[in-house]
Amino acid sequence: MDFTDKDLVSIRDLDREQIEYILDLSKKMVPYARGEKVKRALDGKIMANLFFEPSTRTKLSFESAAYRLGCDVIDVSEMSMTSIAKGETLADTIRMVDAYCDAIVLRHPYEGAARLAADVSSKPVINAGDGAGSHPTQMLLDLFTMKEVKGSLDGLNVALVGDLKYGRTVHTLAQALTMFGVKLTLVAPESLQMPQDIVDNLKAKGCNPVKTSVLEDAISDADVLYVTRIQRERFPDPAEYQKVAGTYRIDNATLRTAKKDMIIMHPLPRVNEIATEVDDTPHARYFEQAFNGVPVRMAILCALMGGEM
Fold first, then answer.
1. Most exposed of 9, 145, 201, 251 (fewest Cβ within 10 Å)?
2. For residue 76, what is the domain's CATH number?
3. What are the phi and psi torsion angles at 38 (to 5°)?
4. Is 115 in the same domain as 53?
5. Per residue in 74-99, pLDDT tens?
6. Are residues 106 and 24 in the same domain?
7. Which pLDDT score is estimated for 191?
8. Helices 57-68 and 16-33, interaxial angle, to 10°?
């Protein structure tokens, strides 16, 4: 399957066959991601890492993925470090960076920034998160984690918990899960429920998600509990954030009705929505999930930059 020079901006750029190809390639990348094997599939290539919004896991895992493949990295961590601070447009910045690299990884606070970058760049653009919009590489590592642990994605019962309004990870993940016949439960306060246009899209694809604000309603049937942080930085009104901060908290008592093989995932960082005591239970998979960002992003870089594995 040829991905060379294609962009990865949103879930719309992938179908089920392409997702399964990336997941299969990610599986092959695991020993390279762990440093148990060495392969310089992207030797001589350069990746530009443009992160105009704070990040730990996504930024570092892209860098790790590139270095594991022998790819060099040029890096910008803040808008203030670029000529955008002088008034240069994002489009002009991307056109210039395009001349210095073989692929661009972009995280930006504004929804639509990655699509704009893809429109003006001649090199592959990978969306590493654009505001409350999309996060396709997180979606792929989430699917990879579920598949690795549960054996298959088909027919899983997945509960998405927390900030479903502003959470770009759940926006992208929910739409991808519809390709696998997954049953979705959307657990959030009414003010943070999944946007209606996304719910309508899920229904058009044959998924009829159940909405609830009561966490206990979802836990006993869930195969996967996907917890998200309520994101202070996405709220236009701080007072609105204070109304919902700390709405849900997962601890061992909360999990008393959970299936023994139910797994808990979280895109991280967490604040207080998952108690640290949960880390020692067999349910906790969020640190494993974070590691999976490396083999999955290795697979993505290899596919888009023409690396041979």
1. 251
2. 3.40.50.1370
3. -125, 130
4. yes
5. 998 777 667 777 788 999 999 999 99
6. yes
7. 83
8. 70
